[in-house]
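Retry 2 of 3 after timeout on previous attempt. Resubmitting structure tokens to design endpoint.
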């Protein structure tokens, strides 16, 4: 596998084949993936790995600040994505659990009615639910 990674390998993080594979799958993916999806993708590339190894690699990446972990549908689904440009939000299909990343942050224009002195906002979580095009037709 060629080392075309544009992400700097975090200092102090051990480089293993599984970790490199996990990272390359995330790099190619256009949407966030679950650990199971990453696992299947690596298996498809002909590598034999354990799902638990994928989870451990992802945990290490999250801890190193390279990957973001997002839970949707009341924590039923956990998704992993490379930490690239800021944060992301997702629209979740309640029919098939497909996850579609939002193109913007709906909170950009949102001005919470809070007094600055009383509360400092450091983050937010927004989820949108609905039906994807396939589920809508059923
Ligand atoms: Zn759907
Ligand atoms: Zn946002």
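Retry 2 succeeded. Sequence:
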């Amino acid at each position: 596998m060629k080392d075309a990674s544009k992400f700097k390998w975090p200092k102090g993080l051990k480089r293993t084949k599984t970790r490199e594979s996990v990272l390359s799958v995330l790099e190619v993916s256009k949407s966030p993936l679950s650990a199971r999806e990453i696992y299947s993708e690596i298996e498809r590339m002909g590598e034999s790995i354990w799902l638990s190894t994928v989870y451990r690699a992802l945990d290490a990446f999250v801890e190193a600040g390279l990957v973001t972990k997002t839970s949707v549908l009341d924590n039923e689904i956990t998704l992993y994505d490379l930490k690239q440009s800021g944060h992301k939000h997702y629209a979740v299909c309640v029919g098939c659990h497909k996850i579609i990343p939002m193109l913007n942050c709906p909170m950009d224009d949102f001005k919470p009615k809070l007094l600055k002195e009383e509360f400092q906002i450091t983050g937010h979580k927004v989820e949108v639910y609905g039906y994807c095009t396939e589920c809508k037709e059923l």
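Attempt log closed. Residues 93, 95-96, 98, 131-132, 134-135 surround zinc ion (ligand 1) (CB under 6 Å).
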